[in-house]
Protein: Cytochrome P450 1A
Amino acid sequence: MSLVGSQGIISVIEILIASAVFCLTFIVIRSFRKQIPQGAEEAPRTKGLPPDRQRAGAGEQSTLTLTQMSQTYGDVMQIQIGTRPVLVLSGLDTIKQALVKQGEDFMGRPDLYSFRHIADGQSLTFSTDSGEVWRARRKLAQNALKTFSVSPSPNSSSTCLLEEHVSKEADYLVRKFLQLMEEKKRFGPLSVHGGLCGQCHLLPYALDQFEVVASSGNAVDFIPVLQYLPNSTMKKFMEFNKRFLRLLQDIVKEHYESFEKVRRHHGLLIEQSQQNKVEANANIQLPKEINCFDTVTTALSWSLMYLVTYPDIQKKIQEELDQIIGRERRPRLSDRPMVPYTEAFILEMFRHSSFLPFTIPHCTTRDTVLNGYYIPKDLCVFVNQWQVNHDEKLWKEPSKFDPERFLHAGGTEVNKADGEKVLVFGLGKRRCIGETIARWEVFLFLTTLLQQLEFSVSNGKKVDMTPLYGLLMKHKRCEHFQVKQRFPIQSSELPLDIG
Structure:
């Protein structure tokens, strides 16, 4: 039997075969599609970022775009960047639900091309590993940081080694600023980076390359073909990581030869891994990490920008420091509860600048449901900290820079509940392990600088607060800063050489 049409003769057998192939293909495709749990639904899908912003990645403008899109699609939405689907989380409650309450589901890291080149793929922060060895390494690093930060200082009046070390560096920075004023009659707040990174010649220049590549939405991670095309930024990024890794290996080798403690700590890591029944051939190594990058120096640089933009706020901080600390001694960590306005300024600087607009990308470790939406395993996740820090539901006039929003009535203490709403270092199981030290360092540096120096800009000059996007958002260069000493430094207080 056959059917006759304008195109010729088609047999019934051919029609049956075509129908069978179609049905089989449909069944196969449907079998590979994840079954959405009953009561859940797929996350809203958007058309994705505009092509120009996809090429730039999730930059400053894309930060605003994703924030605006969340107002339409909600706190859980899915976008397409290149060939990769990405889940974008906004809203403080939603982010807490995902990273804290459902932390095990969202604690992974995506397998991104750029991440494979950081610390030879063994980075504590960027690697895809989240198993028992990773947990043991993270715990070891946390203990090491805690031990260093609270160990008493035997050689000075500082309360701990961290305070002693940072105080010396802060004094060095004071001297550096005064030297720049004497030689060049001006300087820029980005001099903070060169001053504090001077110990390692790689950092001041190469970190910019690192941050651009490692930021959320780097094109090479989302458009695979770009991995095979010439890319000068990626090349510099890879070279920097190789050199930095060699530097760390040399330092670790030196410590192994000099300190028995390091061997004991390493043995503790192995013992802990064995107790957790980690496979014998697992890759057990001391963490190789670029931990806080220049988070502290970026925070200080933004702080100086706000201080010269709002001189009345600078004066108010200095009045508080003069009243509580005076001029006869250096600031200490124990002063923090007694200088609430200074603490409020630091919180507002973190919130308003949001120079960490996204966390390092997360990844789901298993199929899960969030806010009623089905989220499949291995989905890349962007966490929009900028949106939380500028959410009108949380903050009155979020675009206004106002440290007093963090103070209780009367201004005598910081409102801790409001302070905890500011997202800077992430949340949950991937929260930055250096957060406490970073906050302490920002406080000590800032109070030491403002105790001794007064900052301003040249007459007729203005500062441009427009952020430049990377892993950290920095401001545009401003080379018109002025600084003067507030009071003479006694000979016994001359800055120590930390080099």
About this structure: The longest strand covers residues 76-81. Residues 91 and 388 are 6 Å apart (CA to CA). The chain has two domains: 2-33, 51-493. The chain has 17 helices and 13 strands.
